[in-house]
Design a protein that fits this description.
With 136 residues, the chain is mostly helical. 60% of the residues lie in helices and 0% in strands. The longest helix is centred in the middle third of the chain and has 20 residues. It starts with 11 loop residues before the first helix and ends in a 22-residue tail after the last helix.
């Protein structure tokens, strides 16, 4: 039995630190390690926006399934679920460029579904959102 709390109470600072930890792992290609801090936020008592964190967990898990196990169909299914959640939030200002992340994941999704041709040459990265929506 583990000591992990199913629904931990996290402060805003703890959530921010876990979010950054996940980004660092994701951008280094450590997808399993990326999903863990995001999952901790998602399972917390205050994971808002829940779909955002669940989407990040799922896209990281989908990439991990491919890179660690070379299983196209399960990777495509999990990645598709995560992409669906992130696409719904593309215009939201949640600190990262969600649209760019989705665009970087779409070639992987297409390739995993078709299993035709070579795999995409690059893995997606998470970029900070540099422009704020609304009036300047």
């Amino acid at each position: 039995m583990t000591d992990q709390v199913l629904h931990p109470d996290l402060t805003d600072r703890q959530k921010a630190d876990l979010f950054e930890e996940g980004i660092a792992h994701f951008n280094s290609g450590r997808f399993f390690e990326a999903h863990e801090p995001w999952e901790e936020i998602w399972r917390s008592t205050n994971p808002e926006p829940r779909d955002f964190y669940q989407g990040l967990v799922q896209v990281a898990a989908g990439l991990h399934i491919w890179f660690a196990r070379a299983k196209c169909e399960p990777a495509a299914r999990v990645l598709d679920r995560g992409l669906g959640r992130l696409r719904a939030l593309e215009s939201a200002d949640l600190g990262i460029d969600i649209a760019a992340l989705v665009a970087g994941l779409e070639p992987w999704q297409a390739w995993l579904e078709s299993q035709k041709g070579p795999a995409p040459m690059t893995t997606p990265t998470i970029r900070r959102r540099t422009e704020r929506p609304g009036p300047q």
